[in-house]
Amino acid sequence: MQTPLQLLIVAALTAGLQAQSVAESARIEYTVSLPAPSTQMVEVSMRIPTVGSETLRLALPVWRPGKYVVLDPAGTLREVRAVDDAGQPLPVRKLAKSVWQLCTHGASEVTVHYRIYANSLGDRTRHVDDTHAFLSGSSVFLYVEGWRARPLRVRIEAPESWRITSGLEVDPQDARALLAADYDVLVDSPIEIGEHQVWEFEACGAVHQIAIWGEVEADIPQLKTDLAAIVETQHAIFGSLPYQRYVFLIHVGADAGGGTEHLNSTIMQTSRAALEEAGRYDDFLSLASHEFFHTWNVKQLRPAGISPYNYLRENYTPLLWVSEGTTTYYQRLVLARAGLVPPSNFLSTVASSITSYRKRPGRLVQSLEESSFDAWIKFNRSTPDDQNSTVSFYRKGALVNLLLDLRLRRMSGNQISLDTAMRQLFERFPLGGVGFTSADLQQLLEELSGTSFETFFAEYVRGVAPLDFDEELASVGLELIFKASDGSKLLGPPPLRADLGVRLDGNRIKALLADGPAWDAGLMAGDELVAVAGRRLVAGGLDEHLEGRRPGESIRLNFFRRDQLCELEVELGGVPDGSWQVRRLDTVTEAQKQAYAAWMGQPW
């Protein structure tokens, strides 16, 4: 006779087995086959328990998380067909560019077959060759509309010698299969299959994996140490890790660059030099720091508008300046705090961003919120007018975050900071909710500081007021100066050099600045300059023709507009001859030194 405790244990085990059985019966299962990798074709089968549905609508996302632009990967999908549990064909009809409808004819189970051409490495969506397959779920796996919450299983059929690495968990019953709690997890967990190498390290009590595809002679022990330092430094900001295992996927190639964040992994692409040469290594660490910071900021903490994801259209939000700009601000600051680069490295990045921001006419046209909201139609779709009409929610966003951080520290005597605000946001807006709003962020900052941030947001976030750095930098013992091209350092107005206000591609005008003389004179993007002041213009030689001339001088330009030879007299304008730099003040107080140390995580 069983005791009450034994009966409870049996009941619990029975309930667990029943729940598992129900979950498995509802589970959608994919099989990914790579019968001929050199053809770059992926064959996918999708087994769907229909549970009595007469029709099913299948869809493929039109974008991928982490890149705010419509990519339409369905353009590479072909031969969509379906069969019932007896192998009989079922009708499939395409309803829209990324949506198909199939009639089940009452079948208890259907299987959908399709093929995908995988030759998109640079956008980090899908790529197959004779050494690997990289699959980002949003460009590979169809989903059933209304059933995104169902559990999923992915079986990989690839050369036996190929490894499988992903943030997804391995099926305990099959080492070549992966499990996902739902479609959103699958989409945010890219899969690397192939001849890559894998290493592990522990940090903050969690396992971290490094998987590298491509030939490279990296210092793996040093890489482990440095990535661990990034993990620990960012963990100190947020207070906890939102994962038990994390995967750093790395693609190495001559023209590789960029990265994409995912739930408990990232895919980063880099050159060999960035992993082999000391002078380039900090660029890779900066990329890793950026993508890893997203583990909290945007993978967990999401702004309203992109939570939950709508995969079939743009997901608008005015807060990408937080999702991306805050992340950009921290990426090299974290490296400095971790001791991986000197503080001067971070300050040089700040100065470079200020120089770029002040040279861009679009800073007076587009606000940060507008830049964020219009990312889908502007940021990733370049035009000759970009410089005049837009700002980057990455770069200007990072500068506004710098001002926020230093202002919070100055107003509180270093008792609160942007670190405090980010941790509070992370704790107050967990994944699965509706996401935070601009009002939520402003309210939190005001709650933490006890003062109004209305003017700050009105001018710097919703408006286009020029950013003022002097007071905030001075609070940590720094100042902004202009370094002229002759090496002199100035606090006053910078010297000017003669300029046309054009950007050339060879001899052809790629873009014109709206505050430049060429714009006012009537030159256009697409015009081909052939002579300056009566002398032939050789590609890349415009600066030589302008050297020694002064702003205000007139100069004769000859150019082709389409096939017509034209001539114009242009009065040269002037642009600052040098760049802005951030340096230490000559005289600082003990309070400024302490504020600097608290901010930078390094002594003055």
Describe the protein in words.
The chain has 604 residues and is α+β, with helices and mostly antiparallel strands. The protein folds into four domains: 26-195, Immunoglobulin-like, CATH 2.60.40; 205-295, Zincin-like (2-Layer Sandwich); 303-484 and 587-604, Neutral Protease, domain 2; 496-576, Pdz3 Domain (Roll). It has 17 helices and 33 strands. The strands form eight sheets. Strands 5-4-8-2-1-13-16-15 form an eight-stranded mixed beta sheet. β10 and β11 (132-135) form a beta hairpin. α11 crosses α12. The N and C termini lie far apart (74 Å).
Oligomer kind: single chain
| Global shape | globular
Radius of gyration: 28 Å
What is the beta-strand fraction? 25-35%
End-to-end C-alpha gap: 74 Å
Named CATH topology of the largest domain: Neutral Protease, domain 2
Structural class: alpha+beta
Q: Regions with pLDDT < 50 over 5+ consecutive residues?
A: 7-22
